[in-house]
Amino acid sequence: MCKYPHIDEAAILSTCNRLEIYSVALSFNRGVREIEEWLSSSSGVPLEELRPYLFLLKDKDATRHLLQVSSGLDSLVMGEGQILAQVKQVFKVGQECNGFGRQLSGLFKQAITCGKRVRSETNIASGAVSVSSAAAELAQLKLPTQDWETARVAIIGAGKMSRLLVKHLASKGCSEVTVVNRSAARVEELQNDFPDVTIQMKLMPDLMEVVGESDVVFAASGSESILIHKNDVEGMVTPPEVVGGVRRFVDISVPRNIDPAISELGNGKVFNVDDLKEVVEANKKQRAAAAAAAETLIFEEQDAFDAWRDSLETVPTIKRLRAKAEDIRQAELEKTLSKLGDNLTKKERRAVEDLSRGIVNKLLHGPMQALRSDATDASSIGETLENMYALERMFDLKEDFVFPGRK
User: Fold this and answer.
1) What is d(CA 252, CA 255) in angstroms, rounded to the nearest whole number?
2) Cα 113 to Cα 301: distance, rounded to the nearest angstrom
3) Distance between CA 294 and CA 292 in Å, rounded?
4) What phi, psi does 15 have (nearest 5°)?
């Protein structure tokens, strides 16, 4: 993405129900067009079809949004911790990427700090549920008896989401689960980690057989395509009356693994991440006070990031002031040395040069101090910027380039 002429930095954050692109652009309008072009070319989806699903935030709105996301305020399940781990992963991967520059690195670092503060200083995460636990709760609510002992359960996949599913199903009274995975190793890990749950292992070639023998099927795999289609389920035996004669599928995979058309069958019903809102609405109301406290902390972290970013504005001025002083020093030094002639020893020439350098450094000390501020102290930034503008006027430090992302 950073190969585009107006994209200076870029980062991609992918969550269970969205993909977000954070960018530092040299031109806002052109940058937006280039990101849209990249999205379309990367996905193979025409831009006209993509546009209705896009949202755009700029400057402070964009930075504030990431702070809210990292804090769990913008998650489907308010306060869930997985999103903070995803933000950390973007930051970690970004350290090895050229396109993840100083500004995005600073922003994501601030977002991680914000997410930690909100979770430690508020009750936003008390009683909070993950997507996996919300999925387990939703499926239980949809069972006529709301009792896992009456339902045969299968999970597709054996990764982190599946591990959380087993954990929360066990806490709700589910004692038997069939896990279908491509390899046996991860399923064996689950069997070892959850000795109180009878976990039957099946490999992917047995998937349809397992589905036919299950009443509730969770999909939490890493597959990038549909694993269970409508016609796969159509001929299967109808589940028993104790579960309402309906086979329920809960798809929390990204992208989706279960064909939504299965819901058109009389004996099949598919739920996905969007359906979890029914479960998490109560959690949102319960943590409304904590969310308000979190917003206060987000404002503080936003101010801290803005102060840090504003402090970057003085860096080019410092460089230009030093460069101008050095040019003057060099020119005056050459004049002086030419007047003194060729009879100076190396030691004397070095003494004259050290003298010129010492005078310049002492003269620059005051202005340089005026241009340096504590980036964590938002109140000092305004004074520092005023000093910068004054020095630019006094020393005629005309800006010869635009700092990325600044107008």
Assistant:
1) 9
2) 8
3) 5
4) -120, -175
pLDDT in single tens digits along all 407 residues of the chain: 889 999 999 999 987 678 999 999 988 999 999 999 999 999 999 999 999 999 999 999 999 999 999 998 887 777 777 789 899 999 999 999 989 988 899 999 999 999 999 988 887 776 546 788 889 989 998 999 999 998 999 999 999 899 999 998 998 889 999 999 999 999 999 999 999 899 999 999 999 999 999 999 999 998 989 999 999 999 899 999 999 999 999 999 988 999 999 999 989 999 998 888 777 776 666 667 778 888 889 988 888 887 777 666 677 777 888 888 899 999 999 999 888 888 888 899 899 999 999 999 898 888 888 776 655 555 666 677 677 778 778 888 765 433 333 33
| End-to-end alpha carbon distance in the chain | 21
Quote the CA–CA distance of 161 and 258 in Å, as a whole number: 16
Q: Which of 87, 89, 3, 86 is nearest to 38 (CA)?
A: 3
Alpha helices in 261-313 (DSSP H): 277-286, 288-311
User: Which residues are known catalytic residues?
Assistant: 16
Q: Residues with Cβ < 8 Å from 70, sequence gap 6 or more?
A: 83, 84, 87, 111, 112, 114, 115
Q: How many other CB atoms are found less than 10 A from the CB of residue 105?
A: 15
- Tokens 């801290």 label which residue? 304
Closest CA to 28 of 13, 3, 2, 6: 6
- Strands (DSSP E) along 106-234, which ranges? 153-156, 176-181, 198-203, 216-219
Residue 64 CA to its chain's centroid (Å):
13
Round to whole Å and give the CA distance between 72 and 96: 26
Contact in structure between 250 and 220 (CB atoms under 8 Å): no
Short-list 184, 149, 18, 24, CA closest to 98:
24
Residue 219 has phi, psi (to 5 degrees) of -110, 120
Which residues are CB-contacts of 96 (< 8 A; sequence separation ≥ 6)? Answer: none
CB 6 within 8 A of CB 402: no
* Residue 165: closest CA among 224, 230, 223, 216: 216
Torsion angle (degrees, nearest 10) of CA 306, 312, 314, 316 = -150
